[in-house]
Every structure is written in C-alpha cells, then in structure tokens.
Amino acid sequence: MPQPLPHKLSSPELDQLSPMLNQEGDVWTADFQGLTLKTALQPIYSISHKRIVGYEALIRAFDTKANQILPVDLFKLPASDFENLLLDRLCRYLHIRNYGSIKDELNWLFLNVSPKVATVGNPSDSFFGQLLKKTGLPPHRIVMEIVEQPTDDAERLRETVAYYRELGCLTAIDDFGAGHSNFERIWNLSPDIVKLDRTLLTRATEDPKARQILNGIVSLLHQSACLVLLEGVETRSQAMIAIDAGVDFVQGFYFRKPSTELSGLETSPADFGQLLDEYKQRNQISFDPTRQVVNYFERFFLRAVDRMWSGATMAEACTDLLNHPTVSRCYLVDANGIQIDATLVSNAGTRNLDPRFRPLEDSSSADWYRQQYLRQALAQPETLQVTAPYLCVTGAYMCVTLSLGFYQNGELRVLCCDILSSPIDPRISTD
C-alpha cells in the first residue's frame, strides 16, 4: 500500500523517507503520490580505458496499471519547495539503495540534483552524509550532477557544491552547451566533470564548423581542469566524432540505453577496440593538409629568401608566391614581431577582400609576436612553419599561415604568407 507523504522533514530525515521504499530481492522501489518509482541505470564509458567507469541513475515512474509516466510529468507533481526537496531526496535514496545491490566496488554513480533543489534549505545539512553512512557507499564513488540552468542563488549553489566536495564526492555540470550554458559557472563551481549536452553533438554531426567548435570547447574545458563527458551518442558516426573531439567519457543509446533491469550491467559490451582501430586507420590514410602545404610551398619560400639575399625588393622576391591562386598575402616581420612595411596582397587576396573589414586591412607596423607561427619561426630559423586553419584578423577569412625565419644582413627576419584554407587543394600545382 502506498505510503503517505510525511508532513515535514525533521532530523534524521532518513527515518521519514525509509517507509516510502520497498524491497523485492535485490531491487528497491519507492512510492510517491500513487506512483511506483524505479531506478534505471545507463553506463558511462571511458574511451581510453575502453570500458565502463560509471552509471547515471535515472528515475522511472509507473502508475498502478504499470504505464510509464514521463520524467518531466513526474517532476511537475510537487506543489511546493518541500515536495520538490522530498522527491529529490527520495530519488537519490532509491538510486543509492539499488546501486549498493550491484556487485561493483569500483565505478562511479552519477546522481542528478537540480539547482532549484540544491539551493533550498541549508546546503550543509546532514541528509546526504547520513544516507551514505547508512548505505555504506563511499562518497568518492558518487558524482553529483548539477543541471545546467539559471538559479536564483548562485552563492548558495556554490556552497552546496562545496558541501558535496567536502563529503568526498565528485561534482559535475550537466547539459553544458544547452540554452543557459556559460563558462562562468565552470569558473565559479570548478566541477570535476562537465557533461556536454547532446545538442552540441547533433550540430557537430550536421556542420563541420560546429564540429570544430565542439573540439575547441573540449580543449577549453580540459584547460580548465575538467574531465569531459559527451552524452547523447546514438550512432557510430557520432561515436567517431566523440573520439576525434578528445572527450574523456561517452554515454548514449549507441552503447546502451537506460535500463531498469539492473543485473549484468557491469558486463555491458562496447566495441571501443574496433572504434579506435577505425579512428587510427582513418587518420593514417588521410593526408595531413598542413604537411602537404609545407612540402609544396617550401621551394617558393626558399626562392623568395634567396632573392632577398641578392638584393631584390620584397615585392620582387615574392612574385612566385603571390602568383599562386591559393596565396592571399605576404608580409615581413622583424625579430620583435613588428611588421616591416605594408602587406603584399595577391590577386586572390584582393578578390577576397570584404569592404566591411576595411579598417583591418592596413597592417604595416602591426605587432604579430603573440602569434604562435611567428614565435616558432623565430625560435627555429630556416624551418618552415605552418598553422592549423584559423580566422585571419586582417580580412576575416579562413587561412593557414606559413612562416620562415631567416637572417638578412645579420638580422633575423620572418617571411609570412597566408594561404586560403579552402576550397583550393594546395597539392595542385599551377607551374
């Protein structure tokens, strides 16, 4: 018979919640407003380890006729902050009870908590600590997920996250990349793990530019000392995108759907060996476009430098470079990173000029020392350097930059050349 809701939660709260739980063998369920709540677990995999490293606990609700109720409808039932808090704690109590019955003494359990619930009441209350003590689940095996959404009390949320961290739990930001995402929350909360919303993956599947942005977000999060989990992986191609993006963990229907059948989860198969072999093969058989650019244009650069050594002007020395259909512009920089004289713009570069960016065109005396291609050329004279594709500040177009350090009259100079990154294949010669 369903247990009535307690009228208030007083310490110790577990005493009020325990009667709402039912055990059948190793499986626990809970009663809430005439519904039966069950735990569903979905594995989380480490790509590098090629195995399960944790499970996300999800709530599933069923009515008296065993019809499943959508989670969004379940969480609409609470009519007050008190009932929101009760449902949140009941779900966590249920999940931990069920996870404790699984023969797994290593992997993480990911538990969701919304900022709305996390900021209700005293963040340093003893409920969760008592729950872990009662069930015997070590706190270092818990990852508390904060759903990425606005909160009215950012300071209280920070205190709540600090409370879980002091208990010994890991913390995670969930749904990063959805509507309310921003890096300020990453900086304020310093989570151990960031879960990227599946919309980032969906866009990356459809748009190469979005794929580059995904890779950049992963890189920034790693630089912020966060491990990165990509959720919503539903196809093999999306699994390959996740591998290429450099995320640490993946989760999604492609590997396994959430299941209320909790036995045997620790042996869930995954084909990471095949996926990684395919990734290696793809990267081995595909040519490196930047290496191709270096190999092709090196002779043009050496020819230009020889001509400058012989007393030719910059324009005369760079004639062959500027006549190539993929070359946008050439310029010379001194050892301090300061551009010498005006930029030489090719016919291709002239055609690519956008009048909206005219204030950026004149780069004489510009300081390029911050650019990695410039510092590398200064550090390794006589070695041609090349960048990955990037947005050129002088014309707002995508390019790669080649740079070669050389000595002229005893002074170190760097010859730089911007190559339009698309659509011309740099391997095509026009000699």
From TrEMBL:
UniProt xrefs under InterPro entries: Cyclic-di-GMP_PDE-like, EAL_dom, EAL_sf, Sensor-like_sf
Annotated CDD domains: EAL (cd01948), PDC1_HK_sensor (cd18773)
Top-level taxon: Bacteria
Residue stretches making up the EAL domain: 20-272
Gene Ontology MF annotations: cyclic-guanylate-specific phosphodiesterase activity
A matching Pfam family: EAL
Stated name of the protein: EAL domain, c-di-GMP-specific phosphodiesterase class I (Or its enzymatically inactive variant)
Species, as recorded: Marinobacter pelagius
